[in-house]
Amino acid sequence: MEHGLNGQSARYMIESAGMAKIHGRLIMDVQANGRVRTVFLDRLGRTDESPFILKNVNAAEVLLRTWGLMQDQVASLRSEVTRNKIAAVDVSLDEEIAAMFRYKSPSNC
User: Fold this and answer.
1) Were both Cys, which of 24, 51, 52, 60 would link to 42 (CB 3.0–4.6 Å)?
2) Residue 2: its pLDDT value, please?
């Protein structure tokens, strides 16, 4: 049987391929007006991050769940950001979701 990266079989890599995952750190902080800023910093070293500004912690919680975070991760983030006004967690987001955090360059002007 052929082996790919990290000793995983080629068959396993194809079966689990679905959507590529981008590993990084999700950081949330509560602003003075109660809005929640959420930023994803990928481990690829990009410097073009664009934050999501959400109405409140409840809206942030709903969005985190749609991004595929586990319920315990969401609960932990909510608790920490409510208590400390800032929180961070290591996550793996689908490539499509991670791309939403990148600044869009203006089209050819």
Assistant:
1) 24
2) 40
